[in-house]
Predict the structure.
Amino acid sequence: MSENVFETIKRIDDNGKEYWSSRDLSKVLEYTDYRNFLGVIEKAKIACENSDEIIHNHFVEANEMVEIGSGAEKPVDTVYLSRYACYLIVQNSNPTKVVVAKGQTYFAIQTRRQENKDSLIEDNNRVFLRAEMKKHNTSLTKTASLAGVENYAIFQNYGYKGLYGGLTMQDIHVRKRLTKSQKILDHMNSEELAANLFRATQTDAKIKRDNIKGQMNANLAHYEVGQKVRNTIANLGGTMPEELPTPDAIGKASTRIKKSKKVREIKS
């Protein structure tokens, strides 16, 4: 049996997202009794949870209509699975079956390919947002100066304290375990950069719109905007910026993007 059999049972939803049906997968993995396969799914869910993944992002309970003869159909329970869910399932299936070993190879390779693809997307997002952050920080510096801000470092810290729940720039630097020469903005993922970009652009706009003057008034405005961005993240159920993972340097992300472009050029 070819590894591509796992590809042939793959489905695509209306949004172009791939998924697999547990009914199809159980047959390919040679489970004659679907009830026995349900035990494997439960083990996979436990593994998913232990990996700090959200179970319902990978295992979705559903009903499907199946033919029972003479053109009649009946609904049956099934589970729609992500690629990662399928990977966990084959890892928890009977390892003595040849098809299971092939499934482990297939989903391991495909999962790794997707991880690499997602990683490159994240690199591109980071590089773009970091450039935008630099541009808008320049604009904010000018706006703050015109408003009468003389100590820009203190002004910046107010914004960070609002967004990071009281943490200063130095606190964030320590929390990310960066060396003295490393910049915190160069070690933020795209989600954290986007939050900071919103903080910077909205503070810039607020100072101009409200005609704010004076160091302290500008400081408080920056803090207020940062705090409101933080509250919005909380209301949306998001992760607080100080809790987000710290990626490698932005320069390394740029290098990976360049290497990827060279590989594509060679292949083309």
Summary: The mean pLDDT is 90. The chain has two domains: 5-94, 120-267. Residues 120-267 form one domain.
